[in-house]
Design goal:
3 domains, 11% strand, 44% helix, TIM Barrel, single chain, eight-stranded parallel β-barrel, alpha/beta
Length: 415
């Protein structure tokens, strides 16, 4: 179910300078980068449940994980690779021979080979020179290509690396057989205008046929930056369901997809009416609640309480909704509370064909407002307190950590 295009004719002039790829291949990172969100863990079977739903939505490419990490991670990738899913399965590895071997053994058809590029990463994390990074990258690409894998070459922190080194490294990757180049804004520092300049220069220097972006949301710009890349012809945006991912997360799948359909009129081929089902599944399995005001899939996205808004919606939904909720598998809600007006109350009364007098209607509206204002916040307070307890320090607690350590004889104080 394609969402309606919202761009009017007067926007066409601005669209002329946008060059979308003929086919956009959504590369979903929920099972890899999404799982790296603090406190999140997926079993292989849970990954399969999510992958099946992603396949139903029509996502063509899924990053199943990094098989060298553990036996369970390798089993998860193999499980997805053998499941006959409509999506292609990708696995990731560093520029290390055993990582590439693990991906080859996993059964994945695609590999993302990643290495850091910025000086701060090379100096303090990898402790490698630029020459060593180039040599390791080209060797890894050759190893993967010899095994028949589709190779995406990814650099971490691309945008903070010296541009001349980025050009040299990616040129070497192309010459070694890389099929797709991926630019990463690993700490989310790009703004759309700056990213437009950067990517324009990247394409001018390297002329890649197939290129992709991986954007993080540290400043809340992951979706905007991803859309900027797509305007310039990026073929494969990296996305995560519900915007999951490390720190502040990655570009949200649902936001990128629906923006393309509704704001640009670009057909994605995705079944957007299944996005809410997908969101709810990932929310449940990841154990990370979706923010109530999250766009498109948040509980309030298509909810209305203010009297002016509900009156407008009842007259014509386009007054306060940019698209119909059914486009993403949602339903509209009219919330009764402090801000409720006459129009919403009259609409609610229609459910039982009730016809109040003007006096009764006025009294009913006032009673609804009073009841809304008088509701106790204690239950919400308890929820917020529990939420903070769970997510201010996700993972195991300090007490649990030291309990494990002491059982192993580590850190035990002696008199």
């Amino acid at each position: 179910m394609a969402t309606p295009r919202l761009v009017e004719d007067f926007h066409h002039e601005t669209l002329r300078d946008r060059h979308f790829a003929e086919r956009i291949v959504f590369w979903d990172e929920t099972l890899r980068d999404g799982e790296q969100m603090p406190g999140v863990h997926f079993t292989p079977e849970e990954k399969l449940r999510i992958a099946e739903k992603l396949g139903e939505v029509g996502i063509p490419l899924l990053n199943a994980g990094i098989p060298v990490v553990s036996d369970e991670e390798a089993r998860a990738v193999r499980l997805l690779a053998d499941a006959g899913l409509p999506s292609k399965i990708l696995a990731a590895g560093r520029t290390v021979p055993r990582d590439i071997d693990a991906v080859i053994r996993s059964g994945a058809s695609h590999i993302a080979i990643f290495v850091a590029a910025s000086e701060v990463h090379l100096r303090y994390k990898l402790k490698m020179t630029q020459d060593e990074v180039v040599a390791a990258s080209t060797a890894s690409i050759a190893q993967a290509k010899a095994a028949g894998l589709h190779v995406a070459f990814v650099t971490e922190d691309t945008v903070r690396a010296p541009f001349d080194f980025v050009e040299r490294l990616y040129q070497a990757a192309l010459e070694s057989g890389a099929d797709r180049l991926v630019v990463s804004d690993t700490v989310g520092i790009m703004t759309p205008l700056t990213f437009r300049w950067y990517l324009t220069e990247f394409v001018r220097r390297l002329h890649p046929r197939d290129w992709s972006v991986h954007c993080h949301n540290d400043f809340g710009l992951a979706v905007a930056n991803t859309l900027t890349a797509l305007e310039l012809g990026a073929t494969s945006p990296h996305v995560c369901v519900n915007g999951l991912g490390e720190r502040a997360g990655n570009a949200s799948l649902e936001e990128v997809a629906v923006a393309l359909e509704s704001l640009y009129g670009v057909r994605t081929g995705l079944k957007t009416e299944k996005l809410y089902e997908l969101s709810r599944l990932v929310e449940e399995v990841a154990g990370v609640p979706v923010a109530v005001n999250k766009s498109l899939v948040g509980y309030n996205s298509f909810s209305h309480e203010a009297g002016i808004h509900t009156h407008g919606i009842l007259a014509n939904t386009l007054t306060y909704e940019p698209l119909q909720p059914e486009a993403v598998g949602r339903k509209r809600q009219m919330i009764l509370g402090k801000h409720t007006g006459r129009a919403a109350v009259i609409e609610k009364l229609k459910e039982r064909e009730a016809r109040p007098t003007d006096t009764q209607l006025e009294e009913l509206v006032q009673q609804v407002k009073l009841r809304g204002e008088g509701r106790s916040k204690a239950e919400y307070g308890r929820f917020v307190e529990e939420y903070r307890r769970l997510y201010e320090q996700p993972g195991i607690s300090d007490a649990e950590f030291w309990e494990i350590a002491q059982k192993l004889g580590i850190g035990t104080r002696t008199a």
